[in-house]
Design brief:
This protein is an alpha+beta fold and 287 residues long. It contains seven helices and five strands.
């Protein structure tokens, strides 16, 4: 029993060690200067993206995949976000009122597997959601880990330091449920439409094949009828000829019976000459 308990605790300890190894490594400490730099860059980046979308300059950034993807994502979100006020900073803290960064820097700014900076902010527009609250969009901007060195060496931020830019509309629970219901209905409707279409196609093929079989049977019947019409008709015997043939047979029987009787009277005088009956007369063919 003791060995079993020791084995159990050993296995449990191994599982704990594996869990600890597979967990997320604690984020490195981000300095205050780096945090302020990333906040400022994110605000100016989103404001620049909004200006380019408004001025229809998305296609000018095709050579920069991260920026081009971010422009398309923002353009899609802006349809529901509406216009954004990038000028008001009511409390003077350097963060424009339309932006919201989580007070916990480890939530607003994190590091990915490659130590790139991931900045998450919420942007508020002038459109309202179904509850009457201003619509918000969550923006996630990923910067290269070398961004500070690049800025210090060049004096500006290179476009290559953008790894990705994504903008997602924050929908209410009711909107998400409604969208899920519509997607379900659309999916089911498409499935049923395809099934109905397949059923109609199968039914149409069935009618076509049935028509072909019917035409084939009719053609065969017509061929049989034509063959029967072309075959020689059997000779018909009239009622008069049958009666004449029957009369000739009776006369022949009578003659044969008389001949047999005469023969028996001469050959066998002791036997009654009419002691026989003619039952059948068969014609013997000649070679």
């Amino acid at each position: 029993m003791r060995k079993k308990l020791l084995g159990f605790f050993a296995v449990f300890a191994c599982l704990l060690m594996l869990t600890a190894c597979g967990g997320t490594v604690e984020n490195k400490e981000i300095s205050e200067d780096t945090k302020n730099l990333l906040y400022s860059l994110t605000q100016s980046t989103i404001q620049s993206i909004d200006e380019n979308v408004v001025n229809n300059r998305i296609e000018e950034f095709e050579d920069y995949p991260a920026i081009h993807s971010g422009l398309e994502s923002w353009a899609s979100a802006k349809e529901e976000l509406g216009n954004v006020d990038f000028t008001t900073d009511s409390d003077g803290n350097g963060i424009i009122d339309c932006f919201y960064f989580d007070e916990d820097v480890n939530k607003a700014i994190t590091l990915d597997e490659d130590d790139n900076y991931v900045v998450t902010t919420s942007v508020t527009g002038d459109q309202l959601d179904p509850k009457g609250n201003p619509r918000t969009v969550e923006c996630i901007v990923v910067y290269s880990k070398n961004i500070e060195k690049d800025i210090m060496s060049t004096g500006y931020m290179p476009s290559e330091d953008y790894s990705s830019i994504v903008a997602n509309v924050n929908y209410t629970m009711g909107e998400m449920l409604q969208q899920a219901g519509l997607n379900t209905l659309l999916g089911m409707g498409t499935t049923f439409a395809v099934l109905i279409l397949l059923s109609l196609i199968i039914a149409a093929f069935g009618k076509v094949f049935t028509s072909w079989d019917k035409k084939k049977i009719e053609k065969e019947e017509q061929q049989k009828a034509s063959a029967a019409a072309e075959a020689p008709a059997p000779a018909r015997v009239s009622q008069g000829s049958l009666a004449a043939q029957s009369s000739d047979d009776d006369a022949l029987i009578a003659v044969i019976a008389a001949a047999v009787t005469a023969y028996r009277e001469q050959a066998e005088p002791t036997v009654a000459p009419d002691g026989f009956v003619v039952r059948k007369i068969r014609r013997i063919g000649r070679k």
